[in-house]
Amino acid sequence: MRNFHKVPVDSPPSWASPFLDADGPRYLQIVGFLERAITTGMLNSGDRLPPQRQLATQFGVDLTTITRSFNEARRRHLIEARGALGTFIAMPKAEFAQRIDLSMNIPPPPAGVDLKSLLRNGISQVMMRSDTDLLMTYHLGGGSEADREAGAKWLEPMLGCVDSARVVSCPGTQAALAALILALTQPGDAILTEPLVYPGLPLAAEQLGRRVEVVAADAHGMRPDALEAACRQHDARLVYLNPTLQNPTAATIPEARRHELLAGAARCNLRIIEDDPYWLFADDPPPPFASLMPNLVYYLSTMSKCLTPGLRTAFLVLPDSRDADGFLTVLRSFSLMSTSLTSALVTQWVHDGSAAQVLAGVKAEAEARQDLAALLLTGRARPSPCRGIHVWQLLPSYWTPNDLAAAAREAGLVVAPSTAFHRGTNPPNAVRISLGGSADRSQLSTALKKLSALLAQPSPARQRILV
What we know:
By secondary structure, this protein is of the alpha/beta class. It folds into three domains: 21-89, Orthogonal Bundle (Arc Repressor Mutant, subunit A); 100-112 and 356-460, Aspartate Aminotransferase, domain 1 (Alpha-Beta Complex); 138-352, Type I PLP-dependent aspartate aminotransferase-like (Major domain) (Aspartate Aminotransferase, domain 2, 3-Layer(aba) Sandwich), CATH 3.40.640.10. 42% of the residues lie in helices and 12% in strands. It is built from 17 helices and 16 strands. It has a seven-stranded mixed beta sheet, with helices on both faces. Strands 13-16-15 form a three-stranded antiparallel beta sheet, with helices on one face. It is globular and about 75 Å long.
């Protein structure tokens, strides 16, 4: 057991960092210092922390700030109180769950946000402002006028001012994708995609009797020349793109390439589905395709990937408000309406600022988890900012994606191999690691350390001796 009482009372602890105004409340920054120190080994299980009053003096904050820090650190299972002995770094929390899932791409719990209170207050406001009978009855799909206005407001950072008549509220991205495929193509038609694609798109297309055809891509995304060639070859009328922090690679198509792809799509009379769930996480992202050439693009943005999966609401922006009736007719054939209470809560949160508050917390937590992943998987800090909620991890030559996924499963982890996303032959030697599914950074740290240890050793499949 190490004792930190020998540190001069007026000196900051060795594990502390300077406070930054942009990093949120100081009590949460102190918790962050603790988490980083535990992750890097500066603090270990059983280490005793200085008394709260001494820490308050060392950090130059009041005692209340330290007390709040300790309360939050206990909630995250970072520290434990042992009565008169003091406060100690806690032992790692025992994980009784069968596996830690690093395969589900969901946003992390928002840092510094009391989600329970926001839910309680939001639903209370909805109930105060709504007629319960009307709220609980059937509604035509597409959302109310208030829902569409909330969608337009939410999409303003991406698209600027949007006519709410072009906005449709949908019960999630997958339902919207299926409805767009049915509305814009015929059975047997081809839908063009990049070689690596969100698995929900080919699943929906093939279930609906459409073909998915791959268009060659390079480091900047889908190649414009290959797009036009594929359009002619397959007589395609629809292309699917996930251009910003793409799932699974986290790559972003540069603006110049976006203009080239739009020009090619216009020459081929192609329509574009732009699936853009991660734009709000990106640093200085290029303008969406829908803001550059709105008459060609059906723009999708879901709340489930940037706030919380429980908000099964996606906003679709149509090229023209006159397209709404045709789209909604198809959507209602398998999804009559969104859940009224969820839609009303989303609308309330967008208008009262709660959605922006949750987004800020999710982004802060996602950035901290990206830092943690970079440190534990590469042994160094990120060379440049990398946002979003997933990591595309290239593998050493002695691992294949499926072998690593199998070995990870044996170690109690779940990761997504590149084969889950790749269409065609020769998938990249990589896996996608999702950072949001772990309940807290401590659990994520445990999982990433296990994965890092796996990556450092040869695949057991390569070590088998055949006789």
